[in-house]
Amino acid sequence: MSHYLDRFCEMLREKRYVVLDTETTGLHQGEICQIAIINHGGDVLLDTLVKPIRRIPPEASRIHGIFDDDVKSARGWGDISSEVETILRNQHVVVYNAVYDRKMMHQSAEAVGLPKVDWKTFSTWWCAMEAFAEIYGDWNDYHGSYRWQRLSTAAAYYNIPVNGAHSALGDCLMTLAVCKAMAE
User: Fold this and answer.
1) Where are the domains of the chain?
2) pLDDT > 70 fraction of the chain, expressed in percent and rounded
3) CA distance linking residue 11 with residue 163, whole number of Å
4) What's the rounded mean pLDDT across residues 21-25?
5) What is the fold of 3-183?
6) Are 31 and 104 in contact (CB under 8 A)?
7) For residue 24, which of 112, 93, 108, 84 has the smallest C-alpha distance?
8) Total-model pTM
């Protein structure tokens, strides 16, 4: 086991962390259109649609099922970012692909004209995808690292039902179940 995986599993066993997931309008210049945060016990701390500045492209809606009509009366990132910051402050934050979700948080802030928040200055971020890649063990010689696997692959590996995939709350709950299995 690598140093990162050891530390990650040790942190999970302490049971003092939150799990975050977002659904977005896409990869490039994407914004958050749904965010959820749960604690290590699965209690929902935040689960909300977010109204992006730009329209939700049809290809993104096909993946997560969120359409412009669904978010038209939702709060925007500018209205919820301070709530997200309050929840994450002094927390261990577990995300399945942490770099991507932080990037979307930055892009959402930029879209509404908020200053960039360095989320890592007041919370400790952990990538469950990076940890699971090592457990799964599919080595990539070219990149000199383990290949990242989808959350559904991690769930299947541990015989965890894939329920509510591509909803922020569903993916939080699935990530939590995968993390609990990794920690055992």
Assistant:
1) 3-183
2) 99
3) 26
4) 97
5) Nucleotidyltransferase; domain 5 (3.30.420)
6) yes
7) 108
8) 0.96
